[in-house]
Amino acid sequence: MSDRPDLPARPPFTLRARVLTPLDDGAVGHLPDACLEVDATGRLVAVEAWGARPADPSVLDLRPWVAMPGLVDLHVHLPQVPNAGLGAGMELLDWLDRYIFPLEQAYAREVAEVQAPLVFRALAAAGTTTISAYAALWPESTDACFAAAEEHGIRAVIGKVMMDRVTYDAQIARHDILDTSLRQSADLCERWHGADDGRLGYAFTPRFAVSCTEEMLAESARLAAYYGAWWQSHLAEDAGECDRVKRLFPESRDYLDVYERAGGLNDRAILAHAIHLSPSEVERLAASGARVAHCPASNLFLSSGLMPLARYLEAGIPVGLGSDLAAGPELSIFSVMRAAAVTARVLHLAGGEARPRLSPLDWLRLGTLAGARALGMGERIGSLEAGKEADLIVVDPVLTDPLPESEELTDPEELMSRLIFRPHPEMVRGAWVRGKLLPT
Ligand SMILES: [Zn+2]
């Protein structure tokens, strides 16, 4: 393993490295030898070929490391991380009862104060610099998650989970649940939404239709619109869940209609999974502007199904990637890209997807710029381009070589293919948000 040099902890700084990034105009930027300059405010002011510049001893030369945009995880559950990898192959609703609700129920402020900083470090070590996350039902531990994110430096949208139908809150009086949950969520939003110049944001987080009444869904959507915050939930993840929703909402024509009626669907809505949708739902989802968090590793782990990504992209639905920890067993978005590629291939083999294959560079875009755009942050982050904030990672591709001293991969698609299909747990050597090095 190559030694890790002392990486700059704060801006301003200049790096010399290979650069691989999606670009806003749809192209891919690949500079084998590049200069990457970050100004004192944490903004990229130059990303360009090193060219004829003289060698500069004040510039950290990281070659053959590759600088890429920080990865964006659109769907992660902070309290669930300790049970990652447990319960493979169980059905969603049983798995929630067995492995998840007890963990979330025990997620008190003191637990979050210990765990959340560790989770953020682990995410940064895997290259994730932006998350959209669920906490548990409790406002105190949600507050602790925000405080930990503020301290750590990760870019985070977080929400307190809301459940007023099936809930693990044994204390609360039934007639109080709705008002209490709305008030607690609004308080957290007022405290944290937009904090640190927009690095932290709030998402109203009704868990999913199974655990929420129409009122909870509608009122949370109303509050999200009022505050200009996000609204996140799960959609059509599992067949058993879809059946339950049909019974709970007999007046709705399908699952999506439950959220449509609630007024939840717009460009601030992030819906995880979205596997079992009818052609009409796909069309209406695209028209609504809502975003989909594609969580293929989770979908395979719980046998939830294969989301037809290519069909959604063709329909114009904005899609990014989510680890869905802990139904997704791994927190690396590189691993999620691999699961997404496998899912796409299996769907194609089974005749479910006719479209041309997505290339490794398409997966890079989905895990970075597409995720940033799904959060409405595409103007600020998601690619390494002058003018954007310096949310970036450096990766050591040498660690992924099958044999020592292999030749450097010069082709960007081959390089990305290697990082996705032969990742090394320590290949991400540094991660920055706004030019500040994240603890790992
Ligand atoms: Zn989830």
| The CATH class of the largest domain | Alpha Beta
Task: State the low-pLDDT regions, or none.
Answer: none
Rg calc: 21 Å
CATH architecture of the largest domain: Alpha-Beta Barrel
Tell me the count of domains: 2
Percentage beta strand = 15-25%
For the secondary structure, the number of strands is 16
What structural category characterises the helix and strand content?
A: alpha/beta
Roughly how much helix do the residues carry, as a percent range?
25-40%
Query: How can the largest sheet be summarized?
Result: 9 strands, parallel
Count of discrete alpha- or pi-helical segments spanning 4 or more residues = 15
CATH level-4 homologous superfamily of the largest domain: Metal-dependent hydrolases
Chemical compounds bound to the protein: zinc ion
Give the termini distance in whole angstroms: 17 Å
Overall average pLDDT: 95
* Fold-level CATH name of the largest domain: TIM Barrel
Shape, please?
A: globular
